[in-house]
Design brief:
mainly alpha
């Protein structure tokens, strides 16, 4: 592959990463819902994280989320409720934010290695859903729950129970992400990277 062959691909990669970063930011415009059990709001941005991994693949999806983390750290109000700044990271939501990067990566790996190889529409949709659940929920929660526990002084049990309140909504977001990603890939195939 020559330099001339790589340039359009690299440009496309940058555009897709920036596009999904923007999608995640726009999903943050939906007002966050606070449930009061734990100091972490319900947001729509995790839907964008799942979509980034499922549509762009592991590397580009993770890079789109890493760009959100970087924009947050430098102080831009890119998170739900207009939050941003370095102070978000040590706070109760910092673990969830940092978990977006490996969450999108794992979602992308599972879509690329499992879901795209499953024959049949319904089994493939189920595989997309499984990828979104594992990456978008299991991985993100595995980082976010302990982080919330440490940063707030809550017991790990209370932080996990508090995260449980988010699970139903996040499962719905995983279903939406699976349906959208499957439909987009069928009509506009994007090579997962």
């Amino acid at each position: 592959m020559t330099v001339a062959d790589r340039r359009p691909t690299e440009t496309r990669d940058i555009v897709l990463i920036a596009l999904f970063c923007a999608i995640i930011v726009v999903l943050g415009l939906v007002p966050p819902v606070s449930i009061g059990v734990v100091p972490v709001p319900i947001t729509m941005q995790t839907l964008g994280v799942m979509l980034a991994g499922a549509l762009l693949g592991p590397v580009r999806g993770a890079l789109a989320c890493a760009l959100i983390v970087l924009l947050t750290i430098i102080g831009l109000p890119v998170l739900a409720g207009g939050r941003g700044g370095l102070g978000v990271i040590p706070g109760p939501t910092g673990g969830y934010l940092l978990g977006w990067v490996p969450g999108a990566f794992v979602t992308g790996v599972l879509v690329k290695t499992v879901a795209l190889r499953v024959p049949g529409r319904l089994p493939q949709l189920a595989a997309y859903f499984g990828a979104c659940v594992v990456g978008g929920l299991v991985v993100v929660y595995a980082i976010g729950v302990p982080w919330t526990s440490v940063s707030t002084g809550l017991s790990m049990r209370k932080a996990a129970v508090g995260a449980g309140y988010f699970a139903v909504g996040d499962l719905c977001k995983a279903a939406v992400a699976a349906f959208v990603a499957h439909g987009v890939r069928r009509s506009y195939p994007i090579e997962p990277r």
